[in-house]
Amino acid sequence: MMRKVVLLLVVAALLFGCAQPAEKATPTPTPTPEKKETPAATPTPTPKFGGKKEVVIGVIGPMALPEGQAEEKAARLAAEEINAKGGILGLPIRIVVGDTKLNPDTAASEFRRLAEVEKADMILGGFSSGVMNTMMEVMAETKTVFLADASSPAHPAKVAENYEKYKYWFRISQNNGTTFAWDLAGMIDYLRSKGYEVNKVYIIRDEHVWTDAVMKDLTPLLEERGIEIVGDAKVGRGYTEYEQLLIDAEDKGADLVMPILAIAGTGDVLVKQWAELQPKFLLAGHDLAAIDYQFYEKTGGAAEYYIFLADGGVLVTAPPTEMAKHFIEAYKEKYGHYPESHQAYGAYDAVYIYKMAVEAAYKAGEENPFDPDVVVKYLEQFKPGNPAKLTRNVAFHKNHALVWGDEYVRNWVSQWQDGKQCILYPETVATCDLKLPPWLE
C-alpha cells in the first residue's frame, strides 16, 4: 500500500513539472549585413523581332470593284495557306483592308490608317495610277513596303529619281505603260503576219493618266509601222455611247479599233455594240473587262472574236506556272468561282514574295528581317536571271518596275473563241490561232 502511494506522488510530481512554463529563450543576435549595392536584376530574354506576335499585311484598293475584291480574296487565300504551314518565321499573318474608293485623298488616308493604326508590315494593291501617286507619298513617310498595282511609268521613275525616299515601292501585278505599248504594237505585227492588213487605227481609251503614258510610247511605234491614227477618243468611267464612236471609226476607214480601257469598266457594252453593228474592222486592244472569265456570258456571246491583252500574264484557261494552276483551282474551291480580275495573281504573289524576302533575310542573319529597309534589300534580289517562281516569274528592275518578257510577265495577245479565252501570241505560249469574224472574211 505504501508503495502505491509513493508511486502516485512521483507521477504527480512529474506531471506538475511538465506543466510549468518553459524559461524564455534568450534571442540570438542577428548579424548586421554588410552594406552592398543591390545587383541589377537579370533581364528576361526578349522574344525575337522585338516581341512581334503577328505579321500584318494590308490590302488596299477599290473594294466596290472586282479589282479590289480579287486582291483581298487572293491575299486572304495566300495568308490562309501560309498560316497552315506555320506562318512567316512562326508568326501568323493577319490581313487588314483599306478601300481607296478610287479617290486620291481617301486612298492616302486609308494607306496611313493601315500603316500607322493597323501597323501593317507590308501593303499590297492599289489600282489606278492617279491614286497611286498620293499613296506613294504616304508610303515614303511611313516607310512601308508597298507591293503595288498600277501601270504608269511615273511610279518607277520616282524610285529611280529618289531611291531612298521611294525604294519601298515595287510593281507586282502588271507591266507599265511602256510595255503595254510594246504589246499593242506586237498585236498589230501578229495580225499582219496572219494576213490582216492594219493601216488605220482608231483608238478608244480611258480619259486617265495611265493611257497618256501608253500613247506616248505607242504613237511612235505605230508611225514606224506606217500606221495612221485616225481617231483618239477619250471616255470616262461608266461610258456607254460607243456606237457613235464605232460609226465614226468606220466612216474614217479604220482597219482596227483599239480599246485601251481599264477605268471605264464598260468593255461589255463596247463589244455588244461592235457585234450588233458588224463594222468592217477588227476590235483588238487592251480591255481589262475582257480578262474576266465570265465576260463571254456577260456579253451574251458578243465577245466572240474579240482580241485583247491578258494583263499580268495569266488566263484561267492558260496558267503559265504550276503555282498559277494551283492558285486558280484553290481560289475557285474557296470562293466558288475563278479570279474575277488579274489583280488576284499579283496580290497572291505579293504575300508569297514578301514571305520569301523576310525568310531570306532571317537566314542571312539579319537582326530584324521585318525591318522595311531590310525587306527592300532582299526583294531586290529577285532580278533578271533570278526571278521568284510564283503564279508568274516575278523579277524587278533597279527602279522596281516588273521585268517584261516571254519568260517573265507580259500581256499575252489573246482572243475569245467558242466561248473560251485562248492565247494567240507569242508562239511560245499560244494555245490557238487567229479567227476573224465572218463579216470580215
UniProtKB/TrEMBL annotation:
Q: Which InterPro entries match?
A: BCAA_transport, Leu-bd, Peripla_BP_I
| Alphabetic keyword roster | Receptor, Signal
Q: Does the keyword Signal apply?
A: yes
Q: Which Pfam family, an example, fits this chain?
A: Peripla_BP_6
Q: Where is this region: Disordered?
A: 22-48
Which parts of the sequence belong to the Leucine-binding protein domain? 61-383
Superkingdom of the source species: Archaea
Whether Signal counts among this entry's keywords is yes
State the CDD domains in the record.
PBP1_ABC_ligand_binding-like
Name listed for the protein in its UniProt record: Extracellular ligand-binding receptor
Instruction: Please give the organism.
Output: Ferroglobus placidus (strain DSM 10642 / AEDII12DO)
